[in-house]
Design goal:
This protein has about 350 residues and is an alpha/beta fold. It contains 14 helices and seven strands. Helix 1 packs antiparallel against helix 2 and helix 11 packs across helix 12.
């Protein structure tokens, strides 16, 4: 079952608002998991936010009087979900989505997924994610994670509202505040930093040194637009940098929709550099990425690399994608002890700090 909560059950009418909010949020999570368009997700999250402050008696009265759609952000479909939830029923649309959702955590990677303690690559609405940091953190917590590394984009990726040094400092302060509220769960301070064309990292060194975990990824001249030797040198230079820890979605491929070809590079050279500097290769769980391909995962395994199995989530429901990467890891025989996010937060921090 994908996202984080059990299906909403029939509830006490006194809990009408809570039941309806839970149903709307669960639908949003399932839509996020299925990579449905963001406007559909927003419709259900928006309706949940609208009714959340209402007393149950007020919501029940509005249902009886047919006045739900007078509320801002409540449309025909969301109103029906609310009506059914208030009546103590499992909303029919939610039931349909639950039945269509794939069964997770039962594939070949189930043991790996059970061993994971966190996710090292997740985005919030500070860059190109769709939800606030606290919502992403609570979703990760409800999945059983002990931590989530927040890795919003760096300044160069303007299309994704990459964080300037000033905004990243503000985000660090926010994380400190949220961690007091969420303890013992922890948000680890991180970034998905762009690897520039010359292999340097797109953020101030001083700031990168303050972070717990740094994911570094190539986001430009992808799909063969950079010669093999130049792309190899670019990635090798980044891996040699003591301020990065994990190489994100290394080929940059996309395997659905219009797709995007793999960016060619000398994988053996890159993976040996990762081994020499004790950096991890990300197994990206996004359904449209599935990066790296299995032949490169096998090569990285043979070279001796560490791995990090990450969702690259841009919405709460997408944090449930980890089993996709776990299954692929199991299929090529990656042992649990090679996966850095099977460690607790202190072990992960200790490993990353050795690079600094």
């Amino acid at each position: 079952m994908p996202p984080h909560r059990d299906p909403v059950e029939a509830g006490d009418p006194a809990d009408a608002t809570a039941n309806a909010v839970a149903a709307l949020e669960r639908i949003a999570e399932l839509l996020e998991f299925a990579l449905e368009p963001n406007y559909r997700v927003k419709a259900f999250r928006g309706a949940a936010d609208t009714i959340r402050p209402l007393e149950s008696a007020d919501l029940v009265r509005r249902v009886k009087e047919g006045r739900l759609r007078d509320l801002p952000g409540v449309g025909e479909k969301t109103a029906k979900v609310i009506q059914e939830a208030v009546a103590g029923e499992l909303p029919s649309y939610l039931k349909k989505l639950e039945e269509e959702a794939p069964v997770m955590n039962e594939g070949p990677g189930a043991a790996i997924r059970a061993a994971l303690k966190g996710d090292c690559h997740a985005h919030s609405d500070w860059s190109d994610g769709g939800s606030p940091v606290h919502e992403m953190a609570r979703a990760a917590q409800s999945l059983g994670h002990e931590y989530m590394v927040l890795t919003d984009h760096s300044p160069r990726l303007t299309v994704a509202r990459g964080l300037t040094p000033e905004r990243l400092r503000k985000q660090i302060d926010l994380i400190d505040t949220l961690n007091k509220e969420l303890a013992p769960f922890r948000i680890l301070k991180g970034i998905e930093v762009d690897i520039n064309e010359d292999g340097t990292l797109d953020q101030e060194d001083e700031l990168l040194a303050e972070l717990d975990v740094v994911v570094a990824s190539v986001h430009s001249k992808l799909g063969g637009r950079m010669p093999v030797d130049e792309m190899t040198a670019r990635m090798v230079e980044a891996l040699r940098n003591p301020l990065m820890d994990i190489l994100g979605h290394c080929t940059g491929r996309k395997v659905t929709g219009k797709g995007r070809a793999e960016s060619p590079f000398d994988a053996e050279v890159v993976f040996k550099t990762a081994l020499d500097h004790d950096k991890a290769i990300e197994i990206n769980c996004r359904p449209e990425r599935r990066d790296p391909p299995k032949r490169l995962m096998t090569l990285a395994l043979e070279v001796g690399c560490r791995f990090s199995i990450d969702t690259d989530a841009h919405a709460p429901g997408q944090l449930a994608w980890q089993p996709y990467g776990c299954d692929r890891a199991a299929e090529v025989g990656i042992p649990i002890e090679r996966i850095v996010n099977t460690w607790d937060a202190e072990q992960l921090n200790d490993w990353a700090s050795l690079h600094r």
